[in-house]
Amino acid sequence: DDTIMRSFKNKAQDKLETFGEIMIEYRVNPKLPCKSLMEQAKKNLEELLAIKEPVEFFKTVDKKRDDLLDDADDTAPVFDFFRGEQKKIFEKTLKYLRIFDKSKTYVRDQKVLAVVASMTEIVKSRNPYSQIQKLPELNEQFADIYVELMQKEVEQMQPIVEADFKIVRDVLADKDFSDQFTSKVNASFGELLEKLKSSNEIAAVKNIKLESDALKLRFLDEIEEYEQSHQPEAPSGEEHPGEDSGTEGGTSEMLTLKPPAAPKKKRKNVSISSVAGARTYSLENEQDIDRFLAEMKVKLMEELEDDTIITLS
Length: 313
Description:
Helices cover 67% and strands 3% of the residues. The protein has eleven helices and two strands. Strands 1-2 form a two-stranded parallel ribbon. Helix 5 (86-103) crosses helix 7 and helix 8 packs antiparallel against helix 9.
């Protein structure tokens, strides 16, 4: 009896070591299949290993025989999954689904939505192993369609970033201090354009429009502030010779002050997109246009201040 029990426990311990390796995989990626099944099968073996008395041991094994045999049948495809190529295929699908999930709000293409639905159904199945053979084709279909969608988004966003870049360059072109900003402006917009081309998320690409607008306004504000802070001080008045009629027997110089120049208006850079806001306008007639323009006027008046010139871009 002791020999049989010891042999059983040795084999169970070897199996538990394999279970332990797989549990590490689940900690790295909890979305890999059959985690709860493997945890329960591992627990069943651990309970047997904890029994010291042979009589109790054999009674427990006999009582749980069917459960242990079921565990063996159920976990066999899971062990094969982790040993073979199925795991790599499954992880690739999970990666694609993570990418899609971050941008799903912006995706309306029915082809990619259908492919994603099929992929999701397989990876969320309690026993996906017989269907994993379908994933390579689905992965390829997803990649092809998603790349095409990404290219369209990039083609739409790139001219917007380049237009913002040009606005800043055009403003700098008229400044004698352009060297103070040129390299910084080129580097910042160059980095943004590179981010646009290398991104693999539609949501990130769409957000670049906001980043570009914010970058443009930041540089325009910095250029304006630099110009204002480096303006030469205007003279407060000029000296003019004149006669002092109140001085007996002679003349003297009298200072006549020229009125101070009117204060120079400051410029305030405002983005057209921030005035229009994030909402969508439906214009069907002249009244709709009038309402739209009235809303824009209110928002612009809120931005307008004394001695200020608004620059819309």
